[in-house]
């Protein structure tokens, strides 16, 4: 059972890094690719994140740090533009497992849920409104846009997840490993300036 989970994690990790898939779809596709029963037990996200880190270390150690730095720089640019909405960076870009194929996920904690959307409209930013899975697995409104990374020379998906201002307290609780699950502008600026992993 554990060996099957490990095999799923390793296969899914390759898809996450090489194809930019999100964890859920990568795990399901890995099960199909390995010819396993669709009801096979899946590895949890922590196990998959560890497999992603191992894959990056083995196959992308020369390129991934530069790509991660570029993504964090782009994330910081958007966070500074949207500072009034108390932005926090999460996901692979925050945790250090992002590659050039990864999207940027920024949570905004707004007094008025429509205010962030109005700010994008006022600044003539093209975006697509959608509903995605957010904190605690609940659906949340997101504003998705494409932004060019000068360092990478290509467009990157940026997703602004809109939350109520009061949700910020629960969003900062440490994860199962005791890590901060997301970072504010100051934390992301420190990562950019120090080029931390």
Jot down its keywords:
five-stranded mixed sheet, 197 residues
Description:
It is a single chain. The chain folds into 2 domains: 58 residues; 131 residues, Beta Polymerase, domain 2 (2-Layer Sandwich), CATH 3.30.460. The protein has a 5-stranded mixed sheet. The two termini are 32 Å apart. A hairpin with a 4-residue loop joins β4 and β5. It is an alpha+beta fold and 197 residues long. The longest helix is centred in the first third of the chain and has 18 residues. Helices cover 45% and strands 20% of the residues.
Strand content: 15-25%
Listing every helix as H and every strand as E from the N terminus to the C terminus, the arrangement reads HHHHEHEHEEEHH
- How many discrete structural domains? 2
Largest sheet composition: 5 strands, mixed
Low-confidence segments, given as residue ranges, are none
- The residue fraction in helices comes out at 40-55%
SS content category = alpha+beta
* Separate helix tally: 8
Write down the Rg: 17 Å
The strand line-up of the biggest sheet is: 1-2-5-4-3
Rounded mean pLDDT is 91
CATH-defined fold name of the largest domain: Beta Polymerase, domain 2
CATH architecture of the largest domain: 2-Layer Sandwich
Level-1 CATH class name of the largest domain: Alpha Beta
